[in-house]
Automatic annotation (TrEMBL):
Belongs to the sigma-70 factor family. ECF subfamily. InterPro entries: RNA_pol_sigma-70-like, RNA_pol_sigma-70_dom, RNA_pol_sigma70_r2, RNA_pol_sigma70_r4_t2, RNA_pol_sigma_r2, RNA_pol_sigma_r3/r4-like, WH-like_DNA-bd_sf. This is Sigma-70 family RNA polymerase sigma factor. CDD domains: Sigma70_r4. Keywords: Sigma factor, Transcription, Transcription regulation.
Amino acid sequence: MEAQASVVDASETFSQQKEKSLIQAAQKGDKHAYHALYDLHVKRVYALCYRLTGDRALAEDATQEVFIQLWRKLTNFDGQSRFTTWLHSVTANVTVSYLRKQRGWFQRMFNIEESAAEYEQAESSSAEVDLESFIVRLPERARMVFVLHAVEGYRHEEIAHMLNMAVGTSKAQFHRAKQLMKEWMGYGDE
């Protein structure tokens, strides 16, 4: 058992060293190294973008925007934190900014109940719904707060700053998301 743990630790250390050398090369303008970083992280970035946007097309566009911004901001990464932590922060910020720029942002924000009702109609034909689909059903602001807090681990103070809202609003949106998900999962007001 210890031998397996040693192999895993050695493999992880090698991967971290390889990632570090890719980052350093990409920071110097090496496009091949940047492409390798893209390949390593694109699935994780897309997953976060999808959770935040609730829409595959928007998530794909946001993912592209994240990697465009990453190319521009990569020199800002100083190695003081894990690259994946820094990348998640960049992804969340870029995705939120991307959503704000989209035509209809305010319309979607103020008609969130309609979009949830439309989704419910589309989903009613499906007998089994997974957690990811519940997250997608959440109203946009509640979904973004829920993903950033429950999934990505941001504090409400950080979320409030990112989404330009009060800390109390972030907490209220998180509570709303939890209540909706409990209701949809059949847990009611327990």
